[in-house]
Amino acid sequence: MPKIGVKDTRKQQLIDAAMESIAELGMQNTTIVSISKRAGLSSGIISHYFGGKQGLIEAALRHLLDQLGKELRVRMANNDGTPEQRLNCIIESNFSEFQRSALAAKTWLSFWARAMHEPGLKRLQQINNARLYSNLRYSFAQVMAPDEATAAARQTAAMIDGFWLRSALSLDPQENFEAGERLCKRFVQESLAQARAQASKTNS
Amino acid sequence: MPKIGVKDTRKQQLIDAAMESIAELGMQNTTIVSISKRAGLSSGIISHYFGGKQGLIEAALRHLLDQLGKELRVRMANNDGTPEQRLNCIIESNFSEFQRSALAAKTWLSFWARAMHEPGLKRLQQINNARLYSNLRYSFAQVMAPDEATAAARQTAAMIDGFWLRSALSLDPQENFEAGERLCKRFVQESLAQARAQASKTNS
DNA sequence: TTTTATTGATTGAACGTTCAATTAATAAAA
DNA sequence: TTTTATTAATTGAACGTTCAATCAATAAAA
Fold first, then answer.
1. pLDDT tens for each residue of B132-142
2. What does R_g of chain B's alpha carbons equal in angstroms?
3. Is B42 helix (H, G, I), strand (E, B) or coil?
4. Where in the chain is the DNA-binding region found (chains A, B) (predicted)?
5. What's the mean per-residue pLDDT of chain B?
6. Residues 1-30 of A with CB under 8 A from B
7. Which of B5, B56, B170 is nearest to A123 (CA)?
8. Nearest-CA neighbor of A91 among A183, A193, A166, A200?
9. I want to staple A17 with a disulfide (CB 3.0 to 4.6 A). Which of A38, A107, A198, B124 is the partner?
10. What is the average per-residue pLDDT within A185-204?
11. How far is C-alpha A19 from the chain's CA centre?
12. Structural domains of chain A in order of their starting residue, each with its CATH number
């Protein structure tokens, strides 16, 4: 028998190498060779483990989404249930270290573009978008009227994605990401403050 | 001499065809044949007018940016100088009919992704990002303290781009664009209202 | 005729996929 | 222990396809 338990290791190696290649060369210039060389493996191995280049690309996106989900779950577990804290958690997990790395940022953007014309990727992307939105909406709805919560959630989701996009395209992504995180949190704070002011006025 | 004035016509035909192809097939599957066929011309003509496929791609992006700039200038000319009105103009021009079409949306996203790895496109993209930001900041600064204006401009710019992105990726781009425009305007309104409240408090 | 515009067949490079061959780790047999 | 059989893991050359770019040939205007 050959080495056993190597399968998952190899798969992860290839996924990492794929993201490195996409970040460095772009989706456009990422080839089976550019990936396998980075992983220190042969070109054939990609088809062996993922059925082809396309399969590896999808696996890489799934991996990014998993990271994002895990990030959120960890942070959610470590706080009480204040809407304010939960919203901060959501923002933080979207800007967390892993996600913030230039590697991930560039890879995301490539995926977004490709998702528009490949149903497999598009579905994954939409699930993720819907999750961000509904997480936000749930917390806002505990403090606001339904309509207000919907609006605030949509605005926040757009702001998060917008800062991501602009940061990835900027000359200094790191700095832009940090500023983006701060400004998203500030927006949420002020939305909540205004909602509370509104509520106390209605009650009196 | 040959037909005169055909040059610009052909160039525009090819730019339109390129955007159609990118919107339909994605940047990935757009070839000089898929473009030239849509334009009803031969494949060789692209190199003749644009020096190659890459040249046409850049010209198409430049065209999109020009449209955006023209859109803004027209709207700016038709209003007085209230910061509120100017900000609405900026938002409207970013969501205007031309820009809103699924064609433009898909093309934009493809450009964004590609811009990250091609200096020529990246420069164009950054000029555009900087213009949106500084237009916004200028108007906010007439009502707010400098720091506040910077923050509001950054938030608004991110929200605009974010709604663009999420709309382009959504199942119903049209509806999402419209909602996005409304919510961007609402955000600006509330930012201005809060700034004025702050100002009157400070004065008294 | 001269100049410009346009075509479309051709070329050569690049790419993803396939697969026969090799390697190396384990299990079973001697 | 040593030998043999078995099999997953891995390689990389070969193949067929796709594509951008080229260019000789043609058409049409001046």
1. 999 999 999 99
2. 20
3. coil
4. 31-50
5. 91
6. 25-29
7. B170
8. A183
9. A38
10. 87
11. 14
12. 60-203 (1.10.357.10)
